[in-house]
Amino acid sequence: MVSVRTLSGEEYCPELPGRLLRIAEEIRTAGGRAFLVGGWVRDALLGKPCRDYDIEVYDMGQDSLVSILSKYGRTNLVGKAFGVIHLAMKGLSLDFSFPRTESKVGYGHRGFVVRTDEKLSFKEAARRRDFTINAMGMELPELTLCDPYGGMDDLKAHVLRHVSDAFAEDSLRILRGVQFASRFELTLAPETAELCKSLSLEDLSMERIYEEFKKWLLKPGKPSLGLKAFLEMDLLRFFPEVKPLDGSYEKLGAFLDNISRNAAGESEDSRMTLAFAALLSGNSCGEDWERFLAGMTNEVKLLRNVPRLLKHAASITPNASFPDDAFIRRLSVALDGLRECCVFTFSNPQYPEDARIIFANRLKTRALELGVYEKAPEPFLTGRFLMSLGLKPGKEFGDLIRESFELQLDGTIQNAEQAESWARAAVL
Questions:
Q1: pLDDT tens digits for 163-211?
Q2: 311 vs 267: CA distance, rounded Å
Q3: I need a labelling partner for 416 at 20 to 30 A (CA). Which of 16, 147, 156, 322 fits?
Q4: Where are the domains of the chain?
Q5: Are the beta carbons of 109 and 212 closer than 8 angstroms?
Q6: HEC string of 33-72?
Q7: Fold of 4-156
């Protein structure tokens, strides 16, 4: 079993398919060399599992490689321009590629000409990669490290550094830097920050921007370090809606970190709502919230839920008196439950930690007792019952349900029987 010495000096035996090791042996016997590249190498050095196996093959032509791979499964040339061969086997799929160079020839993320060259050295091929921590390779089958740009040293020093001037040809790498800084707890190298300041994001689609923000805010890590990189790159040029919380970006970063930790067990939709709301929490302008979100996504839930949470969470504060039951019920109606509101309040560094934790836990307890924590209360009075009294759907019908529901939220009506009694009296 092959092993890797991690940054901490421990021996780590990563999960590697036996079929991949046998393929690598055949490639070597035929005169080629196979390297695991990219994120797999970085994660292995950190002692983290990774099943994204990207293999770069040197000193071997396409026909020779296909001949070897065909013994193991079905091969598919994904894109001739990119020289990627997909190998599908029972229970496993792998991507094999050839070393290549890229030249920027047009506008946008796809405006590149790619040329494969099996005779390139690993160092020459790795030059096109974004950051040194992603420009390492491990030669199979022994997992011998090849690190021409000092990625391992940068990973040890928690530094995020671009590989070469080729970085500037792909503007998506700026936002990748933000999410890498968060996920791996890295600080930007000064020269990388300066380079990013000179680049634009204007050629990126909203979809690509949104995906990088999601990785920054949702993947495990320390989002405050992503925010630090965001500011050092001067990305406020493109996202001026991100404001400091109480005049402090450090406090905003703490909010992002708290949400990342406290919302870990929530659904992805809730985590997205909470994270994007925290990111915009320093800005009190609803129009800014909507503009920021509309500029990167069409997801209806996020466009609705983030402004809603920001607006209504501000109506309760741990340094004010505790809200009464009627307020709690109405807040649940406004937010479709109080689960996200409790996490948001629990995490908000605008308030002293002890005060906000006590307040949020008390709010959660009372919301659970009232049955309005997971979802909003529903009217006890139903249209079916009103129809049984001889009423037909219309204005009076709707007015009765709304009036009854208001009494229910106040606590005057406490169950369906009381709502029906009230309705009989109102109709008769």
A1: 999 999 999 999 999 999 999 999 999 999 999 999 999 999 999 999 9
A2: 21
A3: 322
A4: 4-156, 383-427
A5: no
A6: EEEEECHHHHHHHCCCCCCCCEEEEECCCHHHHHHHHCCC
A7: Beta Polymerase; domain 2 (3.30.460)
